[in-house]
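name: query_chain
kind: protein
chains: 1
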Amino acid sequence: MYTILIIEDDLMIGDLLQKILAKEGYNVIWKKDGEGVLNLINETDLVVMDVMLPGEDGFKITSKIKNLGLNIPTIFLSARKDIDSRLQGLTIGEDYMIKPYDPRELMLRIQKLLNQYYGHFAQIKHLFIKGETKRVFKGSLHDEVVFTPIERKIFFYLYKNRGKILTKDHFFEYLWQLEDRNPNVINVHIKKIRTKIGDSNGDIIENVYGEGYRLNTHVKR
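structure:
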């Protein structure tokens, strides 16, 4: 769903963080210093940043990211306990945790920041759906599904009525003041939607034989 960039030069800490975040379902990029970070930042949703790094420290790297005008939340991890370092971190970034820390607390802080910045998404298989803005992402928040206006209406009509079987008459009554009720029109649009969302087997948008279509919410990844 979300992509988290870890910048941590301690191999043990970095490896542990990468494994924990991956287990929680995040896409993870791990860098051991700040080299090349600006080239990765456009595909990043949140940064977990060590402060004491080889080369430029975490504060300087984060300042460069912020100066690009990108509103990407950053959590600093540091062994520095002094108040000046903590205040600097909270001024430049969004959160500051002192090492050693409990990974459960870090996971909770990450989730809270992600919810604060990006809101809540519904997940169906590999899709991430934001109903209030009618946007669908496939695999990550950097791969938005591009629907035509009619495809978007059909998908979110199914989503609004998820779990229910919608007949072709339902679709026609919702979409058109009907003059031509050619049933193949719905089939063609559903086929295009399935292709765009990666649902070639019809697991998400199910064809209920002889009745219509149903959007399933409990589909295994």
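note: The beta strands are 3-7, 27-31, 46-50, 74-78, 95-98, 122-124, 127-130, 135-138, 205-208, 212-215.
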